[in-house]
Amino acid sequence: MPGAQPNARTRLVDAAIESFAAKGFHGTTTRDIASAAGMSPAAVYVHHKSKEDLLYLISKEGHERTLRLVEEGVASSADPVEQLRAVMRAFAAHHARGHTGARIVNYELAALNEEHLAEIREYRRAIEQRMRDVVTAGVAADVFATSNPRMTALALLSLGIDVARWYRDEGDWAPEDIADHYCELALRMVGAAQ
């Protein structure tokens, strides 16, 4: 419904993202999160076990969304060149559009407890494997030239993830501009004809 207020859980997640982005996980208190959400500090614990639980939820949702977009890019074509274009376009644009959340998802991992970190690492391994599969398929089809598909896949993912570190909405480029340029860079990295 237009103009509806977000529910308490959504407000807390949004407030946690903004607070973690501004002060880092360890510099943020539950009071900071509650205040940013327009709620009492006790409200955080009504919806989440801890500040770490909020971070885990943000990280899990972010990694699930990223894995889906990578899988959609891979499924978009049987051609490794087109797969790489689709994956890099979606990946770079996603990290630009959601740069604040993506910084939290990718750069606050050390604050997760062991169980949560193990789960997030599984998502990250799956994302890496999908990218590696694309690069390996391109090498096998003789359309990519790289001596190390695994390292190349990691470099491609790092390129996209790093957008969240430097991108700001008021900058010179729209997410689509970045996505287009990163596709060009990705294809050059794998030695594909453009």
TrEMBL record:
This is TetR family transcriptional regulator. The lineage of its organism: Bacteria, Bacillati, Actinomycetota, Actinomycetes, Pseudonocardiales. Pfam families: TetR_C_24, TetR_N. Residues 6-66 form the HTH tetR-type domain. Residues 29-48 bind DNA. Keywords: DNA-binding. PANTHER family: HTH-TYPE TRANSCRIPTIONAL REGULATOR RUTR, HTH-TYPE TRANSCRIPTIONAL REPRESSOR BDCR.
